[in-house]
Amino acid sequence: MRFTEFAEFLGASYRTIRFSSVLCFTSTTLVGAVLAGALIDLGMVWLLMFSAFSTSFAFIINDLSDAELDRSAGVLRNPVSTGELSLGRCISLALSFLLVSLVTLFSLSFQNQLLGLVVIFLYFTYSWLVRAKARPVLDISYHGLCLAILATMGYAEYRPFDVTCFLLASLVFLLSATSQILQEVRDYETDRNMVKTTVTLLGKRMSLILCLAFLASAFAIFLLLLFYDVVPLEILLLSPLAYFIIAPIIRAIRNEEYEYRMLREIRKKRLILIAILIAVLILGSNSSHINTGVMISLCKFLNVRIVENL
């Protein structure tokens, strides 16, 4: 392979892997580990490697499955459909990332090995066999569940599954489902003639309203984590940053012409927002460790309330 061809192959591979999206997925694993009070060690390196490589595998096979549809629709962002990345090289790339993902699992705890296999199964059936991406409700459920499990793996590698982990997974699920809906809003014109998704079923306006409902639920979980001292109080200073996510969605609901611009604005800011969030979590966890006793009190409190209502 000549240098020019190799450079083109690297460029096409970079596009199909979607590096910025991989960083977003991997950050959920890091957040889970940080909330579990983990320090940077070899175990975290293996965790993050699994998250990054398995997610890259998911994006590659997603482009493979969509190649014919994207070619018919004239979608240029898929390097497989445009011919920049050949079918054979794309399959080889996918298998390489899958192999590395499986190898990293051997260095994780047994429960995370099982969770990792579940994630890979969901990634594969999202685009192939079940093809959940083309099934209403399943599409956003798969997307939310994959990231929720990645966050759970980060937490469960250092602490046993508890209420904190459940709330974190629920929060990530809602945010991930919101992200999927926004992607489907962007692809609505193409999808409605070829596949069925949650957005083609509900319509764009109702789907955007559902996004706001998910974000409101996520904020409620965030407040619960904050109130019971699961996350540092300093993170409350970041709450105004939610404006950069919510405002574009509201503008898109009011003005249909703003929809594509909405997603572009959110995508441009998401890595910055995630980086700030992780930095605050790390600094906050160093100054005050997560109070598991408070979470036990929360469980007891909820149990008492349930008994009182019987």
Short description:
The chain is mostly helical and 310 residues long. The protein is built from 13 helices and no strands. The chain has a single domain (3-309), classed as Farnesyl Diphosphate Synthase, CATH 1.10.600.
Describe this structure in words.
This protein has about 300 residues and is mostly helical. It has a single domain (about 5-310), classed as Farnesyl Diphosphate Synthase (Orthogonal Bundle). It is built from 13 helices and no strands. α2 packs antiparallel against α3 and α6 packs antiparallel against α7. The protein is globular. Mean pLDDT is about 85; it is low at about 290-310.
* Whole-number tally of structural domains: 1
Helix percentage: over 70%
Largest sheet: none
CATH topology: Farnesyl Diphosphate Synthase
What descriptive keywords fit this protein?
310 residues; single chain; 76% helix; disordered C terminus; Farnesyl Diphosphate Synthase; mainly alpha
Indicate the topology.
Elements: H1 3-17, H2 19-35, H3 42-73, H4 87-105, H5 110-127, H6 138-156, H7 163-186, H8 188-191, H9 198-202, H10 204-227, H11 243-254, H12 259-287, H13 292-309
Helix pairs in contact: 2-3, 2-6, 2-12, 3-4, 3-5, 5-6, 6-7, 7-10, 10-11, 11-12
